[in-house]
Amino acid sequence: MTSTPVLEMRDISITFPGVKALDGVSFRMFPGEVHSLMGENGAGKSTLIKALTGVYQIDSGEVVFAGAPLVIGSPAQAQAAGISTVYQEVNLLTNLSVAENILLGREPRKGGRIDWKAMRARSAELLARLNLDIDPRSELGSHSLAVQQLVAIARATDIDAKVLVLDEPTSSLDADEVAELFRVIGRLKDDGVAILFVSHFLDQVYEISDRLTVLRNGGLVGEYLTTDILRIELVHKMIGKEIADLENISSRTHAQSADGEDGEVPFFSATGLGRTGSVEPFDLEVHEGEILGLAGLLGSGRTEVARLVAGADHADSGETKVLGVRKRLRTPRAALRERIAFSSENRKTEGIVDELTVRDNIVLALQSDRGWLRRIPRRRQDELAQSYIQALNIRPANPEALAGNLSGGNQQKVLLARWLAVAPHLLILDEPTRGIDVGAKAEIQKLVASLADEGMSVIFISAELEEVLRLSHRIAVMRDRRKVADLPNEDITVGQIMTLIASGTEDGE
Amino acid sequence: MNLVRTVTRSRLFWPVAALVALLIFNVLVTPSFFTVTVKNGYLFGSLIDIMRNGAPTLLVALGMTLVIATRGIDLSVGAIAAISGALACTIIRDSGNGDDVGVVLTAIGISIGFSLVLGAWNGLLVALFGIQPIVATLILMTAGRGIAMLITEGNILTIASAPFKQIGSGHWFGLPAAVVIAIAMIAAVALVTRRTALGLLIESVGINPAASRIAGVRSRGIVWSAYIFSGLCAGIAGLIISSNVTAADANSAGLWIELDAILAVVIGGTSLMGGRYSITGTIVGALVIQTLTTTVYTAGIPKEVSLVFKAIVVIAVCLLQSPVAQEWMQRRRRPLPVVKSGAPVA
Predict the structure, then answer these.
(1) Are strands A279-286 and A457-461 parallel, antiparallel or unpaired?
(2) Contact flag A353-B212 (C-beta cutoff 8 Å)
């Protein structure tokens, strides 16, 4: 192991219109080391990776690679320099052979034609290097996702990579497959490759990495040796409060009557609800007028829980009850029938219908519930739109504006209006305040609290623990796709929640 | 100035402009082009001919508009038209009494019923089995002509039936019957999609299927009914086509009509990506195509170059509507700095 870094990114800044995506971030990688990049959504991880791999151009700062300054103008330049990337979704061609995939675009040639023999030999050599015993001639699609992932790595190592970027390589792998991947990473390390590893799973990060860099809101928090930093500290750094500060913030909400006295039937309950590869079976209860907060890191399973409850994903185990009566919520439509509304975290892809007007967007769920034949009269639509635009302070206050032209915060309010229009008994809000400005955020929080006061049940998901603590009557904590705690919000501190997120128990490690 | 901008920016501006240009061209070549005469209480003239001959394409394009709005496409409409015509003609011939109104009505009813079944088949493949629309409807596009051949036993069926002839060449309320049928269907679609919530739900599914699902929209049912409706339109178009010549030709009835229909929809400003659609646009689009065909004949453009001429006009309209051209014209009109929306942030 050498002590000089193979790659140094110094003081990197990248600005998109209106947003500073990276603000003076420095980052370095050493040969033969696995370096994990840590941070929550919007921390700047992807931006940094894209700057490194030539997808984005840096606005200021410099990159020194193998001792010389390097300007990375395009992904091709990054590859040529020896920076190779394996993206989260395997970017391979499943209908071609393993060898073709490994050497695509770099096929060995003889007299202008592809030299298939050399191609097979070269692929076999690369696969052997990774201890991967598969036939280079076999079709890629016939192998498991894990093997495909490894083939992608074989492809990445062919170009003599000095730096290998693995962006969420384990997100679709099971435990054995992860072990296989880590073995391969170990081999590459021994060969002196510097590996940039990104994963939402803290356990995996601690198992494989030598060094960590934490980003938050586009800024650098710090670089640490994995052996030097406790998980709880790491979580604090990612989420952004010092331990001392956290202990002082106590929750303002108190567990009310809604925390489930004996005999009271919860509005919604789930037992053993789960989905393979998505979230382990869990139990969950939400009472009338109760706000249940779901806390956990990104990828911990908090969104998956919401999707199962809302019928957006199919559960493959467990059962759900509404007011004590067994109901199968197989589709969002079935859930809406039971007055369970789900506001997805993906505002763009699963929320706003951007080419329709604000009014259309607001009435959409109510209208589909009524069926196409019973159109909501235009006057009633206008009333609904006007009243929600006023109540939620949607700007511009024009019901005929195209929803796609509104700002993120206002789109979020339009979506809230859509769900409120169906008068839900249970409203599931997944990251309703992400990426919107402070004012809108406060308005939405206030609204959620007052809705619960009026008897609506709410499942509230947010990456911001303070927000979850402030609003919720009860908090369920998710960790590595498992529900690890469910406690009334009485004198809980952000610190305690973080301990649960980091280690799965209240006592820490 | 403001009015000019509003008008030229409208999605309908270029298709309407193309239509007007074609009509003016026709008048210059044939001064009597706009003349509409009344004979025996019926309207006659080039304009009426355009509408009458364009009715089948317009009907098919109407169904196609809704299918395209759901992000789909229906290639089988020509084949369905052929089947519908073949079925009606076979029933009328086999009855041996082509002048009996009851027989003709039964034949029409069965043809339309079968067209609905064929549309439902397309919808089944697309909405339930999730097969790509272009592939799903390609099945019936190719197999459908075979079915029509089976029905006609491989012959061109010529029939004698005064009531059946009415559909294609008769007159109702002074107008050609085909035009009346087309107008009635347009009115029905406008009524059903805009007076009920169907239009909103179709657009919602077409623009953002995932969001629509979360909002509880029954997208399967909506997509399915779009294909059923397209089948119905194609069936009626097939009846008009075969009635016009009082014959059923399994091979050439409604040949390439799907492409004309798709073109009409696109010229009318409905995006093949689905979502917002314009019935008015489709009507204009279908009229542009039919006027173009008529122009080729009336202007005496040699047969060899007629397709090239048609292609040039279509390319011109499509280019003028293209995003690049629209942006270019907007920049010329108002030299304001365009603020691009930001790149995605990590």
Answers:
(1) unpaired
(2) yes
DSSP letters along A421-449, please?
Answer: HT--SEEEEESTTTTS-HHHHHHHHHHHH
Q: Determine whether the interchain pair B340/A17 forms a contact, defined as Cβ–Cβ distance below 8 Å.
A: yes
Strands (E) across A194-251 are located at 194-198, 211-216, 219-225
Q: Which of B199, B176, B239, B173 is nearest to B46 (CA)?
A: B176
Q: Does B191 touch chain A (CB under 8 A)?
A: no
Angle of helix B46-69 relative to helix B198-207, nearest 10 degrees? 60
Q: Tell me whether residue A251 is in a domain.
A: yes
Output DSSP code: residue A287. Answer: -
CA B207 to chain A, closest CA, distance in angstroms equals: 6
Q: Which of residues 216-255 of B touch A (CB under 8 A)?
A: 216-218, 222
What's the domain range around A471? 244-339+424-509
- Identify residue B272 by its one-letter amino acid code: L
Q: For residue B218, list chain A residues with Cβ-Cβ distance below 8 A.
A: 333, 368
A98 with A238, same domain: the answer is: yes
Report yes or no on A19 lying in a domain. yes
Give the tens place of pLDDT for each residue, A182-207.
988 998 899 899 999 988 778 889 99
Spatial separation of the C-alpha atoms in residues B32 and B15, rounded to whole Å: 24
* Nearest partner of B88 among B243, B231, B233, judged by Cα: B243
Complex-level ipTM beyond the 0.90 threshold = no
**What tens digit of pLDDT does each residue of A94-116 get?**
889 999 999 888 888 888 888 99
What is the mean pLDDT of the segment spanning A34-58? 86
User: Nearest Cβ partner of B207 from A16, A353, A418?
Assistant: A353
Residue where the block lists tokens 């420095």: A26
Q: What dihedral angle (degrees, nearest 10) is formed by the CA atoms of B111, B117, B122, B123?
A: 130
Q: Check A364 against B210: CB less than 8 A apart.
A: no
The band of A250, judged by pLDDT with boundaries at 50, 70 and 90, is very low
Q: Same structural domain for residues A301 and A441?
A: yes
Identify the pLDDT of residue B338: 39
Closest CA to B105 of B92, B118, B119: B92
CA distances from B331 to A20, B124, B316 (A): 29, 46, 20
Average pLDDT over residues A42-56: 86
Which phi and psi angles does A173 have, rounded to 5°?
-105, 150
**Total of domains in chain A:** 3
**Long-range contact set of residues A379-386: C-beta below 8 Å, sequence gap at least 24:** A384/A359, A384/A421, A385/A358, A385/A359, A385/A417
For A44, name the nearest residue in chain B, comparing CA atoms only.
Answer: B346
Chain centre distance of CA A43: 12
**A1 lies in some domain:** no
* Facing A352 at nearest CB: one of B211, B216, B341: B211
Say yes or no: A275 and A397 in one domain.
no
φ/ψ (deg, to 5) at A90? -65, 115
* pLDDT single digits (tens) A450-475: 899 989 999 999 877 888 988 999 99
Encoding tokens for residue A197? 């590893």
Distances in Å between the Cα of A503 and the Cα atoms of A136, A232, A234 are 42, 8, 11
User: Do B342 and A19 count as a contact with CB atoms less than 8 A apart?
Assistant: yes
Same domain, yes or no: A134 and A280: no
pLDDT of residue A11: 93
Calpha distance A45→B192 (Å, rounded): 50
Instruction: Report phi then psi at B123, rounded to 5.
Output: -60, -40
- Choose, out of A355, A373, A384, A428, the residue to mutate when testing the contact with B (most B CBs < 10 Å): A355
Mean pLDDT of B40-52: 87
> Which chain A residues are within 8 Å of B197, Cβ to Cβ?
367-368, 370-376
Q: How far apart are CA A296 and CA A486, in angstroms?
A: 12
Q: What is the CATH number of the domain that holds A500?
A: 3.40.50.300
